[in-house]
Amino acid sequence: MQHLGGAKIKNLQVLITKKELEQERLKDEFNALQSRRDKLSNQIKKYKEEIESLKSSTDSIIVSEHAILRYLQRVYELDIAKIEAEIVSPKLYSQVKEYGSGTYHSDGFSIKVVDGVVVTVIEESRQ
Q1: What CA–CA distance (Å, rounded) separates 124 from 120?
Q2: Which terminus of the chain, N or C, has less C-beta within 10 A?
Q3: Rounded to an integer, what distance in angstroms lies between the CA atom of residue 19 and that of residue 17?
C-alpha cells in the first residue's frame, strides 16, 4: 500500500514541475507582451505629439478630400453618380464579379478594386 502512495506523490511532483514550467513560460510571454504594448504606447504618443506640433505650427487650414468632393458636387454641380457609373462600367462590373479584387484596365486608365471597392484610378501613362 505504501508503494502506491509513493507513486502518487511522484506523479503529483512531476505534474507540479510541469505546471511551474508552464507558469514560467506564460510569465515570459506576458512580459514580452507588456514590452510590446509599452513600445506601441510610446509610438502612439509620439505620433499624437507630432500631430499636435504640426497643427500648432501651421497657419493654413486643411481641406479634406470629402470637403473637396462635396464642393465639386454642390458648387460646380458635378454629377457624382454619373462619374461613379463611368468608373464602374458594365465591363468592369462583370470583370470584378468574375475575378474579384485586382487591377482592371479601361479606356486608358487602371482601376484598382479591393473587396468590391474601387480604391484608386490611375492614368495608364503614369504607371
Answers
A1: 12
A2: N
A3: 5
**41 and 91 inside one domain:** no
Encoded amino acid at 17, one letter: T
Same domain for 44 and 87? no
105 pairs with which residues across the strands? Answer: 110
Tens digit of pLDDT for each residue in 24-82? 999 999 999 999 999 999 999 999 999 888 888 877 788 999 999 999 999 999 999 99
Is residue 1 scored above 60 in pLDDT?
A: no
Domain residue limits at 40 = 1-62
CA-CA distance, 50 to 77, in Å (whole number)? 38
Of the candidates 61, 60, 80, the one whose C-alpha atom is nearest the C-alpha of residue 69 is 80
Q: Which strand ranges, in their side-by-side order, compose the sheet holding 117-123?
A: 102-106, 109-114, 117-123
The mean predicted confidence, pLDDT, of the chain is: 92
